[in-house]
Amino acid sequence: MTIKIRLNQILFFLIFAAIFALSFAYVSQYFFGHQPCNLCLYQRKPFFLIIAICALTLAFFKSKKSKQIAILLSLLTLIINASIAVYHVGVEKKIFKISESCSSTHKEEYSSLKELETAIMTAPTARCDEPTFFFLGLSMAVWNIFYCLGLAIFVTFLYRAQKERRSI
After folding, report:
1. Cα–Cα distances in Å, from 162 out to 10, 35, 168?
2. Are strands 134-135 and 138-139 parallel, antiparallel or unpaired?
3. CA separation (Å) from 32 to 24, 25, 65, 163?
4. Which pLDDT tens digit goes with each residue over 91-141?
5. Which of 25, 47, 57, 76 has its CA 20 to 30 A from that of 10?
6. Residues 148-167: pLDDT tens digits?
7. Could you tell me where the DSSP H helices lie in 2-139?
């Protein structure tokens, strides 16, 4: 069985997959009240980058080589995202030490009530080491690892299938 895949289709698929992941995160946050921690927010940035890379390539760069580079950059971005998620899971499991930016308990001394109020208002609303949402017993950081790696494997399969067919 031969699969006829075009580079444009892979780029559109990557855009759709990134929008799906971001939609899930924002629906979880705004409709179900699951506040993201800083690491959760960091895991969203690669999806925005994938959308930007693929959309700009589709809009402005028409050559086969530029589309191939965009796909490879997107694959690298997925691997980076999975790496951030692995670190996040390590923080959740207390394998890695939590960073101060993920902690809502700062041990600084404040000289005025105004400084304390500012610190409270700018503190993250969720801790990175305490997941607020689980699905099938796994945190969203774990699911993000599976999603990014599965997506990377699938896109690699599509890319290789496209290369073997030599279609644009």
Report:
1. 9, 40, 8
2. antiparallel
3. 11, 10, 42, 42
4. 777 776 776 656 554 455 666 667 656 655 555 567 666 667 655 766 777
5. 25
6. 999 999 998 888 887 776 54
7. 7-30, 38-60, 64-92, 113-122
